[in-house]
Amino acid sequence: MGYHHDRGDSLTMEFSPTAGAAILERTPATLRAMLTGLAPDWTNATEGPNTWSPLLNVAHLIHGERSDWITRARIILAQGANRTFAPFDMAAHLAERRPMAELLDEFATLRAGNVATLKGWKLTDDQLALTGDHPAFGTVTLRQLLATWVAHDLGHIAQISRVMAKQYREAVGPWRAYLPVLDR
User: Fold this and answer.
1) What pLDDT score does 2 carry?
2) Which of 89, 115, 124, 131 is deepest in the core (most CB within 10 A)?
3) Structure pTM?
4) Domain range for residue 163?
5) Is residue 130 part of a domain?
């Protein structure tokens, strides 16, 4: 796995299917540990109007498992005449009203299947360089799509943590000055 400098002194990793799968397969257990058994005050909390609760984040991840990552990877790998992805419906999950435990179970099941598919492909560098057409970004590689899947997971874990932390923004009193997560 290679690293390169990105903006200043920080290092970033080059995408590898093995390293990416290691994150992807841990997300369901991470979310289960964070969210199982919590009161709705936590799982339905938001950052304000038109923001997502932890429950909606999990519902969004489920929608992605059904219609985004592996679906789009298959389009790229097929290299058919039409390699344009269907637009992703960013609102498809907003009406979700099932209990968190049910959502976490469904997410875990869908993710296990998708990670097994990813691992089963045993992708080569040539395959990772294959392209598809994103409706907003144009030409993208399979490597970029799969790296985005990993970063997307980590972003939603961070979002869930941030939403939950903000519920105590006032309760922490003066320590707020040391907790930048409360003001992001």
Assistant:
1) 59
2) 115
3) 0.91
4) 16-36+52-183
5) yes
